[in-house]
Amino acid sequence: MTAQTAAEREMAELIVSSLCLEHIDAASVDPAAPLFGTHENGWGLDSIDALEMALAIKQRYGIELRSEDETIKQGFASLRALTELVAQKKAA
After folding, report:
1. CA-CA distance, 31 to 92, in Å (whole number)?
2. Where do the domains of the chain lie, and which CATH numbers do they carry?
3. pTM of the prediction?
4. Which end of the chain has the smaller Cβ count within 10 Å, N or C?
């Protein structure tokens, strides 16, 4: 597992709380692990979870993640990718 940055920890905590994933310890999540699908070390999230995460991100950061934006799909690949995507959108 690679170490989390402070921003990744904050994003992990947002995901865990917004999706009621009490069984996941946000501090121990591998930031490179896939968010979606049935990968052994992944989160196992689905498309409904993605919608809820996008809403939580909009509420927390004021950033709207639109599905027609191609960078969004790549951004939802992992905690690290999502954190980087939000940082880029905040800076724009």
Report:
1. 23
2. 6-91 (1.10.1200.10)
3. 0.90
4. C
Would you list the DSSP string of 6-73?
HHHHHHHHHHHHHTT-TTS-GGG--TTSBSBS--TTS--B-HHHHHHHHHHHHHHH-----TTSHHHH
Cβ atoms of 41 and 66 within 8 Å: the answer is no
Of 7-11, 35-39, 75-79, 85-89, least confident by mean pLDDT is 35-39
The two tokens of residue 59 are: 């509420």
Reported as a single tens digit per residue, the pLDDT across 67-84 is 788 888 889 999 999 999
Q: Which residues of 73-83 are buried (b: 16+ CB within 10 A; e: fewer)?
A: eebbebbbbbb
Alpha carbon distance 74, 17 (integer Å): 22
